[in-house]
Amino acid sequence: MKKITLIPILFLLSAVGFSQAIADKMDAADYHRAVWHPVHFSLGIDSTSNEQCLSCHQEIIERKVLPKAEAGVVTDSLQSWYQTLTSYSGAQETFHRRHLATPLAKELMNMKCTTCHQGWNPREAAPIPPNVNNERFTLRKQVNPEICLMCHGKSAYQIMGLPSPWQESRDMFQDNCLLCHETIRTTRHQVNFLNAKAIEKAGKENADTCFGCHGGRSWYRIAYPYPRHAWDGMAKEIPEWAKHRSTQSEPRFRLNQQQAQQAQK
Known about the structure:
The chain has 265 residues and is an all-alpha fold. It has helices at residues 7-35, 42-45, 50-57, 59-62, 95-100, 103-108, 113-116, 145-152, 157-160, 166-169, 178-181, 196-205, 207-216, 257-264. The N and C termini lie far apart (90 Å).
């Protein structure tokens, strides 16, 4: 009987282990190259496309709502809060798909990954342990809550002069937001993450289109202080509640000349 030598086997195993170690280092290097890519920094973020973001983060679009929760509840047996409005149709969808991929999102919005995510600077990673004195510290990978507040704030029915929340007073106004807003604050939705023309059209057909982003899908207990863009026939006197309001949207959300012209067509 021939003796079996272990040297070739040990050499083979060590070679495999060495190759795996090299692969692990290459993966780590690729990760670090991605982390420090210019698209994650302010100089490159504004020119970054959704395609570039999704080339690494495609899972956020492909991910689906679980058919059954871990507690055993069947998803289709429940109605999510955003499904209570007549402007939404179809099954439940994940957070990112509701803002990027659903029919409603594609019709009324022009959202980009960079609308909410302004990159992630590794230099601004959360300090460990936390620095309790740095009160204004914000993780850039996280979303600024004010961006969410623009579409998910509480309905400011008191400022609008409604006698009660829209859910209670909508019948008094024929369930039609444009009954008043046909002539009041008519310069609206002029931002690059919304499709203004489609919103105006949909709002005429269904008031839930308007209410959905103005209290109907409220995540916050406060209303967003929208910039008070001037409109034709606007009163010269500024109401007390509006004296500290901006008259322009945040610069990165403003329409450029070409976008403004297309919005008017």
